[in-house]
Amino acid sequence: xxxxxxxxxxxxxxxxxxxxxxxxxxxxxxxxxxxxxxxxxxxxxxxxxxxxxxxxxxxxxxxxxxxxxxxxxxxxxxxxxxxxxxxxxxxxxxxxxxxxxxxxxxxxxxxxxxxxxxxxxxxxxxxxxxxxxxxxxxxxxxxxxxxxxxxxxxxxxxxxxxxxxxxxxxxxxxxxxxxxxxxxxxxxxxxxxxxxxxxxxxxxxxxxxxxxxxxxxxxxxxxxxxxxxxxxxxxxxxxxxxxxxxxxxxxxxxxxxxxxxxxxxxxxxxxxxxxxxxxxxxxxxxxxxxxxxxxxxxxxxxxxxxxxxxxxxxxxxxxxxxxxxxxxxxxxxxxxxxxxxxxxxxxxxxxxxxxxxxxxxxxxxxxxxxxxxxxxxxxxxxxxxxxxxxxxxxxxxxxxxxxxxxxxxxxxxxxxxxxxxxxxxxxxxxxxxxxxxxxxxxxxx
Length: 445
Fold this sequence. Notes:
Distance between the termini: 92 Å
Strand content: 15-25%
Largest sheet: 13 strands, mixed
Number of domains: 3
Oligomer: single chain
Mean pLDDT: 77
Structural class: alpha+beta
Order of helices and strands: HHHHHHEEEEHEEEEHHEEEEE
């Protein structure tokens, strides 16, 4: 009996270990299952919302083609703009925050912002031309096609016939068609470049993902574990709470991780957090724009972005997205853009996108002795404008380069605010933008 006791104790110990491991494995499997269900539910909700927003765009585009009065057109175009902005947010959530479907984003920007520009023209007493009506009909046809595809995906997903990787593949095919669409529209008599946007909105520009990152190009490739640690540190959580969702291989390759609350993408080179996205419903708007900016700026400072300055913003469905630019030695770098989204009910940060900053940030040489001083360049501005203020800035150009300029904030006799950019080396106007104040934020055209 004495000889059997150690054996019995050994067997009992091993049994306890096996049971403990089984329980531990079951608990972790349950946690993983809960996290995966949460991500799946979030994706399902985003896909359904995308379908709803596209249906709204179709409906209001039809109404837009029938409008003849300023009041109705104003209401309809505002609805299209809000729906297109919300559709882009839903698309971002489905694609894990990675802006790879630039053609789809471009289309959604065009359909919202082009109709909003028509609203501004009507408000000035102008009429919609036959060419512009044809552009609306084109937008309607393309929108209906995209809406049909997304609603088919929703139906298939609800019937368990495809997963979200297949959905992304299908949307990528749609992206190719949207890119062609953009070319067709740009060839039309009325250029679709004439629409308002957030000033120098880097993350959704057409060319930003076609070049190499100035910030990470020469950095070492991080391991998945290193990237996960950076993501966890950014979120202020433990790394074991994150799971790898996907890897991308493009000009800005990333690891994307997730938990039940959000997704976060980290560059493979240098392990820099590129984007973060949370699914958030805003119940009641309680915060002002100034309060949202304060919370967004604090969020950035806590994560090491101290040389920043807010510029313009947009608000959609209770989420305020603020543009921050890199700011150093009195120069605003609109190229180095970071976007932070704030829920206006709780003040929670629901989105972060540093794509513009990562793609463009580098050491620059600002001209030390330009031909014109800010005071001298001010005299070059049209006599039809009164200068309110000025500052030094770096702006992107249409040649995918950047330019050091003086930015003058002006106003005309009708109180229209205008931004005029003067090249201090040549004295020539580098750009002119009109400021548009809307219920959804401050835009430029």
